[in-house]
Amino acid sequence: MMKRLLAVWHARNLEFLRDRPTLLFTLLLPLGLVVSMGFIFGGPPRPLFTVGVLGSRAESHNPFLHERYVRFVSVHDETAGLDRVTHQRIDLLLDLDGPARYWVNTDSPKGYIVEKLLIAADPGARRQPVTGQAVRYVDWLFPGILAMNMMFSCLFGVGYVVLRYRKSGFLKRLHATPLSAFEFLTAQVLSRLSLIVFVTVLLYVLIAAIIHFHSAGSIALLLLIAVIGSLSMIALGLTIAARFASEELVGGLLNLLTWPMMLLSGVWFSIEGSPRWVQWVADLFPLTQVTDAARAVMLDGAGIQRIIPNLIYLALTTLVFLAFGAWSFRWRVD
Amino acid sequence: MPESAPILEVHDLVKQYSSVTAVDGVSFAVPEGACFGLLGPNGAGKTTTIEIMEGILPPTSGEVRYRGEPVGARFREEAGILFQKTALQDFLSVRQSVALFRGLYERGLDVDEVLRLCALEKLASRDNRKLSGGQQQRLLLAIALVNDPKVLFLDEPTTGLDPQARRNFWELVESIKARRKTIILTTHYMEEAQLLCDEIAIMDRGHIIAQGAPQRLLNEHFAEVLLELPRHEFPDVARKLPLKLIDASDRVEISTHDLDGTLRALIEARVPLRNLRIRPANLEDLFLDLTGKELRA
């Protein structure tokens, strides 16, 4: 038995080692993950709380400013600061001009604790009412979860299917007909798109009913975000599947795309406190654009003017990805 | 053989892979309405040649012309293709698979008509993955016929089929021939070529080594009959006889005009004749004669 086991083990190792791109990739992915995690979460102990400060910290003697594990970020305008509190991007907003005033989201667990710290350090601080409905964490999470589900379905659903078609020779057979690469890719995009939009709408209705969520903004606008966002991510999946014929390589590349998107797009937690360049990279991801736009509409009731930059970005990336996919497309395994 | 202008012309085709020249200067023309066979052993370059003709593989040099023009949109619309290996989309029934391909062409046959033509009516609602080898091949033929092609490419269509399924498939091809379609066929079964083809080109190591109508080629190379004897029963002394001997793997073949004289010579040399077979030459013999090796060795 061992002999047969060893024979298969050996053959599989050879196959893996000879598949150079996959091998390289398998080594680079964890390395890249470790390095980027180091950048994002490394350095001195991370602050547990983020507090926005209105007014000058340098001139203030408020003892709260010396608390450890609290990061203080300057906020220049009260409206913007309040917006961050409601969306739990900061845990508390502190105004140091005159007697200390603060705003906190009563639905935020971290806000609750950091408020206790503040009162202990400065018992005179006065809480101000947060105007507008405070956003529950689950509400904040909801658009991100929908968008993430969309991303997985787009990338893996399209990427693997096209790869399988190529490996089985089905693509080669299609190539022998008048069908063009562009027609084939567009059909794949549209098929996946209708499926994803259907599933996303269904999920939205079900989850909204369960968590008693009501969108602050237009449902039609949400649908538009779902359509354009899906298009962009399906097209991204196609660029990966356009050429390669190795499951391991394509799987690896898809992971390389989905993991950073999942971690950095602000689906689970805000990346407010991360280095500038991380936020800059995150903004490039279609998932970030979809999540941001959907949150703006669902939580703030934003209109189309506010999310038009996100939509334009998603539309442009769709075109770029599709063009690249059609250009690099291969019908058969070389 | 039908006399008409060539529907397909192949000019000095070369296909070079990194270290191997798979096709090395192949030229021929296929008249409209003919069944043209590319014959040869595995690795002779048949599939490479046919895939270049189909526009699937780019040639290293040389060109293929369809009705006098480079292969293009018109060709794709008018060609029907059956590859050596094709997987279809999963979860589709036989009818849905045919309908998918019907949708890719401007003109063509009704799906039901194609199913009937390929004897698939009873299997129409079956999942395409649950077909036997012969049924699968009939489905792939149906897909190749769905655009009512002017020219049909069949790349080793009966390889791997059992004899009964093979015979059924041949009958189908005969019925397609009767509809005046041009057929390009590759095969390593000489019997198949002899039965179906009006003209054949025999390929070996990337070259065409003989070309013409099967019977004419046979007449040119064999004005004789063949005597077959088991090799182990053929004594070495008999090799000194003035006979035209061809060594095959398990037998010795003697080609002769003078059957009586040859038999007398064999009897005098005390060659045991109880397993002697006498038969006319076929394409297998031609290949052996041309290359000194057997087709499926």
Task: Explain what the structure shows.
The complex is a heterodimer of chains A (334) and B (297). Chain A is of the alpha/beta class. Helices cover 66% and strands 7% of the residues of chain A. Chain A is built from 12 helices and 5 strands. Chain A has helices at residues 2-18, 20-41, 78-86, 109-121, 137-168, 170-175, 181-211, 219-241, 247-264, 276-284, 286-300, 304-328; strands at residues 49-54, 70-74, 92-95, 101-104, 126-128. Chain A has a 5-stranded mixed beta sheet with strand order 2-1-3-4-5. The model of chain A has no long low-confidence stretch (mean pLDDT 83). Chain B has 297 residues and is of the alpha/beta class. In chain B, the strands form 3 sheets. A 6-stranded mixed beta sheet of chain B has the order 6-7-8-3-9-10, with helices on both faces. A 4-stranded antiparallel beta sheet of chain B has the order 2-1-4-5, covered by helices on one side. In chain B, helix 3 packs across helix 4 (111-117) and helix 5 runs parallel beside helix 6. The longest helix of chain B is centred in the middle third of the chain and has 15 residues, at 163-177. The model of chain B has no long low-confidence stretch (mean pLDDT 87). The A-B interface holds A 165, 168-170, 172-179, 331-332 and B 54-56, 73, 76-77, 79, 81, 83, 85-89, 101, 104-106, 143, 147.
User: Largest inter-chain interface?
Assistant: A-B, 14 and 20 residues
- Beta-strand content estimate of chain B: 25-35%
The percentage helix of chain A is 55-70%
Uncertain spans of chain B: none
Main sheet makeup of chain A: 5 strands, mixed
> How many helices of chain A in DSSP terms?
12
Number of strands of chain B: 14
Q: Which quaternary structure do these chains form?
A: heterodimer
Number of helical stretches of at least 4 residues of chain B: 10
Mean pLDDT of chain A: 83
Distance between the termini of chain A: 36 Å
DSSP strand count of chain A:
5
Radius of gyration of chain B: 22 Å
Shape of chain B: globular
> What can be said about the biggest beta sheet of chain B?
6 strands, mixed
